[in-house]
Amino acid sequence: MKSPKYLSIFSSIRFNDCSIAAILSCRTEAQGAGARYTARMSSGFANLHTHSHYSLLEAIPKIDARVARAKADGQEALALTDLGNMYGTIEFYKECVKQGVKPIIGVEFFVAPRTRFDKEPRVDDRPSRLILLAKNEAGYKNLIRLVSASYIEGFYERPRVDRELLEKHREGLVCILPAIGGEHALALGDGADERVRESLAWHRKNFNDCYAQITRHPEIEGHEELMARIAASATQANTPLVAGQETYYLDKEDATARELVDKIRTGGVLEREQDIALPDYSFMTQSRAASVFADMPESIENTARIAGMCALGLQLGKAIFPVFPIPPGTTANAQLREKAEEGIAMRGMAETPELRQRIEYELGIIEQKGYASYFLIVADLLAYARQEGIYTNTRGSAAGSLVSYLCGITTVDPIAFNMPF
What we know:
Layout: H1 17-25, E1 26-29, H2 63-72, E2 77-83, H3 89-99, E3 102-111, E4 128-134, H4 137-152, E5 160-161, H5 163-168, E6 173-177, H6 183-189, H7 193-206, E7 209-214, H8 223-236, E8 241-243, H9 255-266, H10 286-292, H11 297-309, E9 313-316, H12 332-346, H13 353-369, H14 372-387, H15 402-406
Parallel strand pairs: 2-3, 3-5, 6-7, 7-8
Antiparallel strand pairs: 1-9, 3-4, 4-6
Helix pairs in contact: 1-4, 2-3, 6-7, 12-13, 12-14
């Protein structure tokens, strides 16, 4: 059977809930109306690896509190790198603009050990992690594509991407190999030196801006030794180091609360009676960064350098719909009118002044709002669904639209049942 016409628009993009929201609620611009950001080096330490409560059951900070903390510390830029999703992207962007902090849009991805299609127990359930930050519009769109594919094609316990997807959607992105969970770090933990070299070489080859993260966790046994090995391996592979802190909460006192939500996620039990020192994943201030990375000042400078690379600006408040393929020399409004006129006979309706007045009224509003392409896409989609025997239904204000009824979107006559548009 023939596929819907509109699917050709999305030949290179697949959408999940979060990316649909991102696409329809904003449009991306490096310049133009809305907030503007230029590629210039920021000053001081920038947190490039932070999570919000949208990292579901793994982090607890609300977005406004995170941005306020960065602002209070004098940080010029802040990244959001939630785990495998972009649910908080627009909220984060708006809050940063409101508080005068440069927003950096990113994701901490889960990367399948083999391919995203391999889902064998005890073999493919140990994904590595990779931080990607959008430098520009191309990078932002590639984040959306990667997140969507990770859910639609790669989901196995976690939404996962693989090297094939990363190669395909690498434009406009800064790559940071996390100190905890990065592919190279896991290989180092396994004592697989050749895998470490191969991993660093592959990421350097595929991302023009590739960094290896260094973190400070003296409270974690063996962590400082691992960091020394990461630094040595990265230096040998000509991969610059970047200072970081995986932020899952704002204050050290929140460690137990974060541990609790993580136990909810994993089905574990919180051992309240044991005096166990939990890892510190609190928000890192500039003074603290300067102290713990005093032996690696270039790693702090690289956070500012990366922040300077990221110059993504979003213009919000305007819905952007895909352009429905129509014949040359016509418009979406004209095509929708033609389809509605054809629907009069298809529905067996009589041409009356009431009918004509209602059609003109609805088409006028649709044209004024710029929704003609949207109606054409939905009509095409539902025609295909019914052709394939897929049940459909309609909800919302469009259910009372005569144009929707004439175009085959709805199945209830709004004139006969006196339904308002």
